Amino acid sequence: MSSLGKRDLFGGAITAETAQDLVDVSDIRQVPDTQEVFVYPRSNASVIVEILQKVEPTKHDAIARFHFDSLAHDNDSRLSTVKEVTVVPNDRGDNTPSAIVLKGEQLVPKFNKRTPDRVKILMAVFRVEDKNIDVVVTFNIPVEAADGGAVAAEDVAKVESDFGALVKSFRIVDYSLFA
């Protein structure tokens, strides 16, 4: 796994520190304009940054759980568990909202396999209140995989560290992205 470096997202409207060796999925296949998708080159861990309409809940815990439950539904998760929800304050003095961070797990069936993968989910929601937008960052880390594609324990710690670095460095530079 590589060191961190500043990455421009959405044409530079958002910046964040990420692992330098992440592979941009848009170089491989089409990705919706509202998403930035990356994968780790030597594991099945992935990173998705998505611009979504603000969801109805207003309390931090409920906002994060709504997005987590939506992801579980989209993944056809057999079981989803929230471990914790916290707020990581933006103390840099810019206008980027503080991150609502959720850590959880989902059992996700893959490719018609009988045994679902156990996927650690690290999620950060940045609520841009005046634009009615939730920017959702999701790290998907398969820790048990039927196809043998689980992320090794030492690499899980690195991906978790990368998530923390992204959350702390996440900066909205150009709010016209949400116009």
Protein topology:
Elements: E1 4-9, E2 14-19, E3 23-24, E4 35-39, E5 46-53, H1 60-74, E6 79-88, E7 99-108, E8 117-128, E9 133-144, H2 153-169, E10 171-172
Antiparallel strand pairs: 1-2, 2-10, 3-4, 4-5, 5-9, 6-7, 7-8, 8-9
Question: What can you tell me about this protein's structure?
Answer:
By secondary structure, this protein is an alpha+beta fold. The protein has 2 helices and 10 strands. It has helices spanning about 60-75, 155-170; strands at about 5-10, 15-20, 25, 35-40, 45-55, 80-90, 100-110, 115-130, 135-145, 170. The strands form 2 sheets. A 7-stranded antiparallel sheet has the order 3-4-5-9-8-7-6, with helices on both faces. Strands 1-2-10 form a 3-stranded antiparallel sheet. It is globular and about 45 Å long. About 30% of the residues are buried.
* Helix residue percentage: 10-25%
| Low-confidence sequence ranges | none
* Shape category: globular
Biggest pleated sheet:
7 strands, antiparallel
The rounded Rg comes to 16 Å
Average of pLDDT? 95
Order of helices and strands: EEEEEHEEEEHE
- State the end-to-end distance: 36 Å
Count of extended strands:
10
User: What fraction strand?
Assistant: 35-45%
Compute the number of helices.
Answer: 2
Main sheet strand line-up: 3-4-5-9-8-7-6
SS-based structural class?
A: alpha+beta
